[in-house]
């Protein structure tokens, strides 16, 4: 199966020593034409994930 967007174990840290873990172990698979929502509390990493994608 091929996907338009796919991440596996995606990790993103901020800070000089990586002290802010914005994303950790994110698995995401989105097929072409599929509409997905991204919900979660403030600061959970939604914007960070969208920017990377
Ligand atoms: N440029 C940056 N430098 C340092 N830390 C950051 C940066 N961008 C995001 N963060 C941190 O990464 C984490 C995830 O932030 P992000 O903005 O992705 O969350 P969010 O789910 O979009 O939040 P919100 O619901 O408030 O929009 C937070 O701890 C945030 O403080
Ligand atoms: Mg946001």
Written account of the structure:
This protein has one helix spanning 46-52; strands at 5-14, 20-30. It has one domain. It is built from 1 helix and 2 strands, in the order E-E-H. A two-stranded antiparallel ribbon has the order 1-2. A hairpin with a 5-residue loop joins strand 1 and strand 2. With 53 residues, it is mainly beta. Helices cover 13% and strands 40% of the residues. Bound molecules: adenosine-5'-triphosphate and magnesium ion. The site of adenosine-5'-triphosphate has 11 residues, from strand 2 and helix 1.
Topology:
Blueprint: E1 5-14, E2 20-30, H1 46-52
Antiparallel strand pairs: 1-2
The structure holds adenosine-5'-triphosphate and magnesium ion.
Summarize it.
The protein is mainly beta and 53 residues long. The chain has one helix at residues 46-52, and strands spanning 5-14, 20-30. It contains 1 helix and 2 strands, in the order E-E-H.
**What is the beta-strand fraction?**
35-45%
Q: Strand order within the widest sheet?
A: 1-2
Bound molecules: adenosine-5'-triphosphate, magnesium ion
How many separate domains?
1
Largest sheet: 2 strands, antiparallel
- Helix/strand/pairing category: mainly beta
Residue runs with pLDDT of under 50 for 5 or more positions: none
Count of individual helical segments: 1
Shape: globular
The end-to-end distance, rounded to whole angstroms, is 19 Å
Rg, Å, rounded: 12 Å
- Helical content class: 10-25%
Mean pLDDT score: 97
Order of helices and strands: EEH
- What's the β-strand tally? 2
